[in-house]
Amino acid sequence: MTSCSLDVVAIGDAIVDVIATCDDAFLVARGLRKGSMQLLDTDAADDLYSAMGVAREMSGGSAANSMAGVAALGGRAAFIGQVASDQLGEIFTHDMRALGVRFDTPPIGDDLPTGRCLILVTPDAQRTMNTSPGASHELTVAALDEDLIRSAAVTFLEGYLWGPEKPREAMLHAARLAHDAGRKVAFTLSESLCIAGRREGVLGMIDGGVVDILFANEDEALLLAGTDDIETALAALRPKVETLVVTCGADGALAMRGPDRVTVSAAPVDKVVDTTGAGDLFAAGFLTAHSRGHGLERCLEAGAQAAAEIISHFGARPEADLKQLVRL
Fold this sequence. Notes:
alpha/beta; 14 strands; 328 residues; 13 helices; single chain; 5-stranded mixed beta sheet; 9-stranded mixed beta sheet; UDP-N-acetylmuramoyl-L-alanine:D-glutamate ligase
């Protein structure tokens, strides 16, 4: 096995986040369930966007956020995702490269726009995400940089892309490339919506040995395991992967590998402002520490520290110096 020139390469949605605050009444009036994620077509996204208040726009997407975190932590990160030949695609490309993340996926024609996620943040810091995937769901096997995948210690796959056929096939192909090169594959379940209706397919993929490191929150783990008891879920999922990582919100996180089970508390934060990207930055901290050869406890701590920074302000990109804060 050759040495790795990258710590992590991620494959995921190339999305521009549009973030605005709102009250609970706004969500109720538009039939939106607080804290959820739903998919919108282009027309519905245009309608919601016009009703939102003053908003901030920045490149986003779950795995892209994670790669921004890896780069901020001093890691070597790359991202593969599909944008269109439009203004939002240019914004996404510029932002990722400016953050130190390698991003070279060629844009496609503008028949579909670059994806966007309309994020509504209520006063309790909960985020309600409304995603119009656009071009991001057109990612194909042909768009993959195979040498890039072979050069990364970990290939990180985003659950949001598991549903549509084209990117699913691209992710499976990338996993084969990574394993053939002796690398690891990580998968994040992303959101309960990604599992609902696709549980058997996700389980089949995991049972097929595609995933080495599985990230989930408690709700996702329960849904995937088909139980309402977290210990039962952990017992069911633990044998399926080399490393199981479960985040537990304010209660911290745990990781299981072989006979080992490690838990850490959530890192302290003065005020929770916006939970957008908490799981993304947790994965960034964990994977960066993993790439440095740290054990489970330090990987969990790094994830918790990165997540704590991100929930202390609006947006899913670090504002503090993560490299100094986490010190891997």
